[in-house]
Amino acid sequence: MNSLRKKIDKIKPHFTEGGRFAKLRSVFEGFESFLFVPDRVTVRGSHIRDSIDLKRTMIIVVIALVPALLFGSYNVGLQYFRSIGADAEIIRCFWFGFLKILPLIIVSYVTGLGIEFIAAQIRGHEINEGFLVTGILIPLIVPVDVPLWMLALSTAFAVILGKEVFGGTGMNVFNPALLARAFLFFSYPGWMTGDTVWTYNLTAGENIIDGFSGATPLAYAAGGELSGIPSFLEMFIGTIPGSVGETSTIAVLLGALILIITGIGSWKIILSVFAGGLAMGLLLNLVAVNPFMELPFYYHFVMGGFAFGAVFMATDPVTASQTEKGKWIYGFLIGVLSILFRVLNPAYPEGVMLAILLMNLFAPLIDYYIIESHIKKRLKRASLANNIQGV
Amino acid sequence: MPRHVKLKKGYDIPISGTAERILAQAVNPLRFGVKPVDFPGLIPKLDVKAGEKVKAGTPLFHSKLNPDILFVSPVSGTVISVERGERRKILEVIVEKEGDDHICFAKADPSSLTREEITRELLLSGLWPAVRQRPYNIIAKPYEKPKAIFISAFDTAPLAPDLSFVISHFSEELFRSGLLAISKLTDGKVHLVLNSKGETSPVLSNAEGVEISYISGPHPAGNVGVHIHHIDPLNKGEVVWTVNLQDIIAIGRLFTEGIYKPERIIALTGSEVTKPCYYRILTGACVASVVEGNVENDNVRYISGNVLTGTRISRDGFPGFYDSQITVIPEGNNFEFLGWALPGNKKLTFSRAFTSAFLPKKAFTPDTNFHGGERAFVMTGQYEKVLPMDIYPMQLCKAILVEDIDLMENLGIYEVAEEDFALCEFICPSKIEIQSIIRKGLDLMIREMS
Predict the structure, then answer these.
(1) Out of A15, A157, B128, B406, which could bridge A28 as a Cys pair, Cβ 3.0 to 4.6 Å?
(2) CATH code, B264-343
């Protein structure tokens, strides 16, 4: 690696103040610190620092997403071959799906990172790592058939208006990946809803065998056709139509395991989202005035993006509640609202996205009340001490 | 029945280079330094010029805001230089030792003295700066009455000296006399806080006239700020004083022998020290006198104090007024290829983000590398794991950053000092310099409240 290091040192002067490419300084720094942890040493404060940084943090989330990505690739292929009535072995399904997903990933990263680079350069900051995760999340929460330009547009929207205008990573109110999805959802509903968008090339309708509908389990449930819903096991494994990375609960749970073991994702949030979903699901089961409400509560966990949202979206530390007590409330309400929207709102078959975005908005309010009660407690302690002194 | 507090939050950084329990002889040091920068918020006014002769106990400088607070020479000899930094800020006053002359202070039994007499004696002898106050962690105001005085009898910082071992090398008489003098300064209690884990010297556990409490747990369980928080928390308008254990000895010596002799046993620690052990020195003795022949490597950092809160000094530098420890660790000024991406069997981390977290525990030899770049606050719930206080650390930091005085007050700025947040700074994945932020907040409060 020494020769690489030497090459970098050789071109480095061009990117410093006054150099030929000074305008690309942030980009250069971004790539350099990607390859080499810098030789920067501590100047003030603690002389030693933990080895962890945001790059490490983000890359662990990306690793946690790999099972969902791999299964998603397989499932895209599987659904396609099912739609044309062909049999294909696992590898072929996987490879087919992978080639379909790859452009989504590339477009998402190129658009988002490009904007990040420009924003960092304008601010004179180092490049933030936040988009490493957002860039892979976006392709995983859209239908495979979404046109690339729409993906690019929604990514740009999410990064610029959702994040950079607030000051970049760490300052945003809404989860950028979900914002991209919401943008797509409301701007191009034709590409985001319905039965045909979830399977590759189904909208075009060529070579499709009779009887293949491509409808997601949620669509069946919303339509009251509970008989159309696949078995619990099938949905748990994830061989069902849906957004690219959300279908397999197993893969998502593997990711959750990685996040929880490494401590990067908040287990409190994950657990409380499921608890909220459980509570609401049970409540609906008790009332049960239509078939969707009769759906056993545990089915909700394996349908749609519930698990994916709980594990990868709700846990985004920037947009979630920032106090530990607040995380319980925040997660629980996401769970409750997801199921509520899902079952009781006929306009949207899936409620997870909106539930999380809504709670993103309320997270600061939750924190505000937690902090207020903490302050009250402290003031009470102070007045108590004064009373004792008075006696 | 003494109080027992068991703390769970915190982190003992596994780092190599603990001092062996041996008291070695320092090479006779020639140069001594007294550093105004050891005292946050102090504006020093020089009392001597280079070339002047001084005795042990001669004032070198005093506080501009409170001229009664003197800072004196630890030895007799000649002032050889006054080192200045940016904007002529005084960094060090250096004295070259010669002879053994000292100013004689009145000998007295502290029990026969009044509070005012003891205060005056401490001010005159230059020992007053050893008394610090919370809030703000600055030198105490001599004429204020604290509600209590806290003395921490153990240090949990990385590689910190074993204060029980240290105290056993001093006469019990000095300690008793020092405690007696200190206890006259408050109408409230004097709290001596011991570690409930490990061995405690009987000198400490049998101390009289003080309230003994036991606290255990990982670092920062030994921090006096944590003790105050759990034993007698500070509210707005209250003041608590703190004194380091070894300064009690120096205070005791002042009253029994009538001299300023700030003798101190320091631990020379860190992975780059060939034989880490303890040394008996006078405060301010040139570090070279203890590291000579004991550090082989060149690319190292000398720290007065511990790796979390200490001050960087040069090889010819001087230990800080409040420090009982010198740490020598390797500099980390090297690039690491894909360092953030590799599994990391040998990476020191509080998180579980590297494989090292799942391997059997062993001591690491961390260097001074920054391990990343500074970012905005992203991760949450991390600082809380290493701060055993009922305080919201991130929210307090943010309140300081936006200079919201009311919010800072409400969130507990009076109870904290930089050192209590040192571990937060260490574990921060966004590499935010939290100790600087806290100091900024404290300085802001001092300005605002005066």
Answers:
(1) A15
(2) 3.10.20.600
